[in-house]
TrEMBL record:
It comes from the Bacteria. It is found in: Cytoplasm. Pfam families: Aldose_epim. This is Aldose 1-epimerase. It comes from Bacteroides thetaiotaomicron. Beta-D-galactose binds at N108, R109, H205, S206, Y207, D277.
Length: 378
């Protein structure tokens, strides 16, 4: 055990220092780094800024490992912020949310908050319709990450989830690396090790609005998901265990389709999800070199292509945004102001052994990758 803990401690040292913090001047997105400095759980929060040779900018805070802003050019060359979020760290702390967050230890839902690992049953928080959602009451979205800015285009974040945290077994040492490439891609690499068999499913929960104006909503966004099947849910948003064809249903996004075209139809899955909030079974089958989904704004021409080595993608249409929260620049976030596209293992995989496994054993290395690549269609 001591040897394992030494390995975990060594792993965390890779990201244990905060360096190259932004200290002067507002960002391209208009954020003031001083507004992102406060102490949370005994650690200092910061705003880190990544820029590439094209002028694209990504701002990230170590509170919750969150993407705060993404500035990309539209078809007229105007820079647009294409994610929801807040102007200060205080707002992130005061308004519980998942905007831009790193999600863990297990992204999405676990049925009744129960898992069995090596014959032992563990009870997790039941924080969403009787199920465990996004790691429990205080998931990674509310945790403080250690941070190291490697260079102007790379940020490493690290977090040690201790044995028993939110009910999960094992000390889980995690590292999340954000790399902004010169072809306008945000390459997110997740790595983790454990000293006891556990479950892990890390993802990013950015809320995208490619219009660059959340007041306009997502209904005109064109979405393509390269998936012939999806995992249906019941009325509590829990996967039933079925893998169903998207053919001849409102879940078929194999061709570019406006999000608002069918979202309010009478299809039972849309009723259960209050719109789209489902996992798609990707045709790419873990091939990170292939596009698994594309989102496009006809207004701005901004295109987002997604790549992953994961088997699933959660498409959530912002159905629970309700206009009670004001985000950056005082914009009210109304229902369906955004689109979330979360790469993942299928929801409740720990309780469905026939699905791709989310188990991680000592000596194994968890590796997950998500690439958000931006371009423009003129």
């Amino acid at each position: 055990m001591n040897r394992i803990m030494i390995l975990i401690a060594g792993f965390m040292l890779l990201v244990a220092a905060c360096t190259d913090k932004q200290t002067d001047g507002n960002t391209v997105s208009g954020l003031n780094p001083a507004d992102f400095r406060m102490e949370v759980d005994g650690k200092q929060t910061y705003l880190f800024v990544l820029k590439n040779t094209n002028g694209m900018e990504v701002c990230i805070t170590n509170f919750g490992g969150r993407i705060v802003s993404i500035m990309v050019p539209d078809k007229e060359g105007i820079m647009r912020d294409v994610v929801l979020g807040f102007d200060s760290i205080q707002d992130y702390v005061n308004h519980p949310n998942n905007f831009g967050a790193t999600i863990g230890r297990y992204g999405n839902r676990i049925n009744q908050g129960r898992i069995t690992v090596e014959g032992v049953e563990y009870q997790l928080p039941q924080n969403n319709y009787g199920h465990c959602l996004h790691g429990g009451l205080k998931g990674f979205n509310s945790r403080m990450f250690d941070a190291k800015q490697v260079d102007g285009q790379t940020l490493e974040l690290g977090y040690l989830a201790k044995d028993g945290e939110e009910g999960f077994p094992g000390n889980l040492a995690c590292k999340v690396t954000f790399t902004l490439t010169d072809d306008n891609a945000i390459d997110i690499c997740y790595n983790a090790k454990t000293d006891h068999t556990s479950v892990v499913n890390l993802t990013n929960h950015s809320y995208f609005n490619l219009n660059g104006n959340p007041a306009t909503g997502n209904s005109d966004h064109l979405l393509t998901i390269y998936a012939d099947a999806y995992t249906p849910v019941d009325s509590t948003f829990m996967t039933t265990g079925e893998i169903a064809s998207v053919g001849n249903t409102d879940m078929d996004f194999r061709q570019p389709t406006p999000i608002g075209a069918r979202i309010d139809n009478e299809f039972i899955q849309l009723k259960y999800g209050k719109g789209y909030d489902h996992n798609w079974v990707l045709n790419t089958k873990g091939d990170v070199s292939q596009v698994c989904a594309t989102l496009e704004s006809p207004q701005t021409g901004i295109v987002l292509d997604i790549y992953t080595n994961e088997p699933g993608l959660q498409f959530y249409a912002g159905n629970f945004l309700d206009g009670t929260v004001k985000g950056k620049k005082g914009i009210v976030y109304n229902r369906r102001a955004s689109v979330c596209l979360e790469t993942q293992k299928y929801p409740d995989s720990p309780n469905k052994p026939e699905w791709p496994s989310a188990l991680l054993k000592p000596g194994e290395k968890y590796e997950s990758r998500c690439i958000y690549k931006f371009s423009v269609r003129k």
